[in-house]
Write a structure and sequence with these properties.
132 residues, mainly alpha, two-stranded antiparallel ribbon, 7 helices, 2 strands, binds protoporphyrin IX containing FE, peroxidase, metal ion binding
Length: 132
């Protein structure tokens, strides 16, 4: 799970509405927090890169960021804070190859899950809830 979340969130953007609570987190890196506050003051729910270092590369950089309190989403930041996941976060943060290997394995597993298609499943409009 640490592999998938961090790897998936090592590219792409997050909307301010999904991490607004983080802007009041006293533990967040102050420079990042100030930048996010400024961006999120804009209209139409602005978005920012999930990986503030290498946003166009699937890599281990996000693990280094969350170890320095620079996670955007709470779920990402919590990976570095929680006892059950902080160990693997530290290992990925210092071992680019290990992360790469694990991410490939995780994506293979995901590919074999057997996604429901047609009337058997649905693509959610909002990931948090069934469509109806
Ligand atoms: C390849 C895998 C993944 C990709 C590409 C991905 C991508 C994203 C993106 C782009 C967002 C921001 C959405 C927006 O702002 O509109 C997001 C948010 C989020 N993701 Fe992922 N993600 C992945 C895997 C995961 C996994 C495995 C989990 C948890 C088990 C997860 C949990 C979350 C959560 C909690 C949010 C915040 C959304 C909310 O609070 O509703 N993600 N993800």
């Amino acid at each position: 799970m640490v592999t998938l979340i961090g790897g998936g969130h090592s590219v792409g953007v997050a909307h301010c509405s999904l991490f607004r609570d983080r802007l009041r987190d006293p533990a967040m890196d102050p420079t990042l927090k100030a930048r996010l506050r400024k961006t999120c003051r804009g209209p139409n729910d602005p978005s920012v890169f999930l990986d503030q270092g290498t946003p166009f590369r699937v890599d281990y950089a996000i693990y280094r960021q969350i170890k320095s309190q620079k996670g955007i989403l709470r779920i990402d930041q919590n990976l570095a804070l929680h006892g059950s996941t902080s160990g693997i976060v530290s290992r990925f943060a210092s071992d680019r190859r290990l992360f790469g290997k694990r991410f490939v394995e995780a994506m293979h597993k995901m590919g074999a899950i057997g996604v429901l298609t047609g009337d058997s499943g649905e693509i959610r409009t909002n990931c948090r809830a069934f469509n109806n």
